[in-house]
Design a protein that fits this description.
By secondary structure, the protein is of the alpha+beta class. It is built from four helices and eight strands. It has a two-stranded antiparallel ribbon with strand order 1-4. A two-stranded antiparallel ribbon has the order 2-3. A hairpin with a 5-residue loop joins strand 2 and strand 3. It is globular. It starts with 6 loop residues before the first helix and ends in a 5-residue tail after the last strand.
């Protein structure tokens, strides 16, 4: 059967992650009761775009975390991509944080370094980010988007 979500549910569902099943009845410190076999999720969208956590949270700033490390060297390790904390949940947090995050981050860095060193890149339409697709809680880059790559001439 074809199932479509209401626009309100669709907007909410695309912003949650870290879904967990409640294994036994739990009452939280604020009195919220979570019955066994129910599911809970974290709202990553709101957390990662909260002005209390990040200045200009909706603005793309590629050096955001580098700037944060420079501002307060005593907290430099806090703002590394592999670290987890309550306001940065990309790899989960606590006991169930992704154990492969160190490998994943290093692979991303190697891949990006190779591309930046060897190619000029741009989107098909300069300055326009193709709209992503949403499937339940997953954000999927637009598979029809075109990224232009031009191999750089070698300079020795």
């Amino acid at each position: 059967a074809d199932r479509t979500l209401s626009p309100a549910i669709d907007r909410v569902s695309r912003r949650v992650s870290l879904a967990r099943k409640v294994m036994s009845d739990v009452t939280l410190s604020d009195g919220t009761f979570l019955p066994k076999d129910s599911f809970v999720s974290a709202n990553l969208y709101a957390t990662h775009r909260d002005p209390a956590n990040y200045s200009d949270p909706n603005e793309f700033r590629p050096f955001r975390y580098s700037e944060m490390r420079a501002q307060d060297p005593s907290e430099a390790t806090k703002h590394q991509m592999v670290n987890t904390q309550a306001d940065y949940l990309s790899f989960g947090h606590g006991r169930h944080a992704c154990p492969g995050r160190f490998f994943a981050v290093n692979e991303l860095k190697v891949m990006m370094a190779y591309l930046v060193l060897n190619y000029d890149m741009k989107m098909e339409v300069d300055g326009v980010h193709p709209e992503s697709f949403y499937w339940a809680t997953t954000i999927i880059p637009n598979p029809t988007a075109k990224v232009m790559f031009k191999k750089r001439a070698r300079t020795n």
